[in-house]
TrEMBL record:
The gene is rseP. Belongs to the peptidase M50B family. GO terms for biological process: proteolysis. It comes from Pseudoduganella plicata. This is Zinc metalloprotease. The chain crosses the membrane at residues 7-28, 101-124, 383-405, 430-448.
Length: 455
């Protein structure tokens, strides 16, 4: 069932984003007076088509679903010598360079506009998310060394307001990208009963982060969680053999108070095969129960890591807030979010080219499909957020100056504006071949990374 949901979520998301992208090209082409011959969702052989509209444009679905295209009347692709003058005036290459720029740029801009609409709608509806209240930082982490304490609530990072945990994580990623220039992260917190304090995470700690991983936890910034209360207890697990029951509250471990679910989970994982003594509160009565977590090998870095497990469910969740905005503020936040995400994406690409960020961060259709399925299972808001992020990525990638992409064509037309003449056909052919080779290489790398993650 999960596989079917993943496939449906992936197809719906990708299909929607492709249609929006190509509609951008189509609508601006029509607005500029260019004749559109075909609108295809998918590439390759056409499996279904119908003709509609005054120009009898062919609306088609093609066999390969990873993409789409709008085919216009274009002298470079077909013989137009026998066409009447009325059609020749609507041929693509006969339009001014500014009209051609508008038509090509309309696809990526449509993706950005869709992302703005999705984010604005989500901000107006209200998004439930964990509050930016912190757990006690782990010993030796950058947050602990900087002076953060349990129950500190982050209110701003580098002057940017933080409303919830997603804002916190996003601002940490931005700070990590900027840290290459030696800039640390100035984090302002509200401490209960003590007022506001400002701490600084050094640039050195930020530059070491794996931006594809859990950046906040790596710094010692974790969500404040409730005390560990047990839900289901697996009768085959170490917890059940030790006498743990549903409803038990874990108070201490080896005489050390357990502050929250995260601390308890971390302590159990760090004790495979070693007996630990739990102080438990059951129906108001204190109990002391020894338990020996079973060792289990999990993937970690380059080699498997053995962690402890007692096979119990932990109940409770962090403090949640609903962040809601009016139409104007929601739209403003959405525009800023799309801009910031686009800039960050470009910076990440730049850091990959310079070797500062691993090429393992390049993801392909398998990973995107997995994220689509996961987000759809969480809820509609999560799924729409996923679509907005992918729509931004699609817009940015299409604007890269790579021949065969929209950005490559925009580069050609920019050179035409500067020189007063179009690029030569020979130059265009060579660039096209190089562009196809580069795209095939990137796709192969993305699929390789996807398979490596699965394995």
């Amino acid at each position: 069932m999960n596989l079917l949901q993943t496939l449906v979520a992936f197809v719906v998301a990708l299909g929607t984003l492709i249609v929006i992208h190509e509609l951008g090209h189509y609508l601006v082409a029509r607005w500029c007076g260019v004749k559109v011959l075909r609108f295809s969702v998918g590439m390759g052989r056409i499996v279904w088509s119908r003709r509609f509209g005054p120009d009898q444009t062919e609306w088609a679905i093609s066999a390969l679903p990873l993409g789409g295209y709008v085919k216009m009347l274009d002298a470079r692709d077909q013989d137009v010598a026998s066409l009447p003058e009325a059609d020749l005036r609507r041929e693509f290459t006969r339009q001014s360079v500014w009209k051609r720029i508008a038509i090509v740029a309309a696809g990526p801009l449509a993706n950005f506009l869709l992302a703005i609409l999705l984010y604005a709608g989500l901000y107006m509806h209200g998004i439930e998310e964990p509050a930016s209240r912190l757990a006690q930082p782990a010993q030796g982490t950058a947050a602990q060394l900087a002076g953060f304490k349990r129950d500190d609530t982050v209110v701003a990072i580098n002057g940017n307001a933080v409303a919830g945990w997603s804002d916190l994580r996003w601002q940490v990623i931005r700070a990590a990208v900027d840290a290459k220039d030696g800039q640390g992260a100035r984090i302002e917190v509200q401490r209960p009963g003590r007022g506001r304090f400002t701490f600084t995470l050094p640039a050195e700690a930020l530059t070491k982060l794996d931006l594809d991983g859990d950046v906040t936890t790596a710094l010692g910034l974790s969500i404040a969680l409730p005390p560990p209360v047990l839900g289901k207890v697996d009768p085959r697990g170490a917890g059940a053999r030790a006498g743990l029951r549903t409803g038990d509250t874990i108070v201490a471990m080896d005489g050390v108070p357990v502050q929250d679910i995260g601390a308890f989970t971390g302590a159990v994982r760090a004790a495979p095969g070693r007996e630990i003594v739990l102080d438990v509160l059951r129906d108001g009565r204190p109990l002391r129960l020894p338990v020996t977590p079973e060792g289990d090998n999990v993937k970690g870095g380059k080699a498997p890591v053995t962690v402890g497990k007692i096979k119990v469910e932990l109940l409770g969740r962090p403090d949640m807030i609903v962040v809601t905005d009016g139409p104007v503020r929601a739209t403003t936040k959405a525009v800023r979010k799309v801009w910031d995400t686009s800039v960050l994406t470009v910076r990440m690409i730049g850091r990959m080219l310079t070797g500062d960020v691993s090429w393992k961060n390049v993801t392909g259709p398998i990973t995107i499909a997995d994220y689509a399925g996961q987000s759809s299972r969480i809820g509609l808001a999560s799924y729409l957020t996923f679509m907005a992020v992918v729509s931004i990525s699609l817009g940015v990638m299409n604007l890269l100056p790579i021949p065969v992409l929209d950005g490559g064509h925009l580069l050609y037309y920019s050179l035409e504006v500067l020189t007063g003449r179009p690029v030569s056909e020979r130059f265009g052919e060579i660039a096209q071949r190089l562009g196809v080779g580069l795209l095939v290489t990137l796709m192969a790398l993305a699929v390789f990374n996807d398979v490596a993650r699965l394995m």
